[in-house]
Amino acid sequence: MKGLLLLVLASLFCGLSAQIRCHSCYKVPVLGCIDRQSCLLEYGQKCLTTKVYLGKMWLYSSLRCGTEKEPCQEAFNQTNHKLGLTYNTTCCNMDSCNSPAPRPTPGLALIFLTSLAGLGLWLLH
Length: 125
Hints:
This protein has 2 helices and 6 strands. The chain has about 120 residues and is of the alpha+beta class. The protein has a 6-stranded antiparallel sheet with strand order 2-1-4-3-6-5, with no helix packed on it. The termini are far apart.
């Protein structure tokens, strides 16, 4: 009887953990998440967010589901000395816990891209 109860509880736990979703995208300044999707978390894995910095300036973040081949391993201030980049990775295992900030308004992205185009034209002139 105890074995049956353990089997039922284990199947419920596996069923619940199989429903955890993570966000998956590359998040860049001003534009926010590019190619935003969600992924279903594998049993025993965690959602992850890796933030990449050049010095103290944030360049981008990578959000995704950890997998058996690439599990989430928290790490802080990992440095690539050749490129001068610093990586910080955090892990979490709740539904949508690596949620990116809300999508920026299209107007903000349009202003940014128009400004870049104007700067490019000014530099060419």
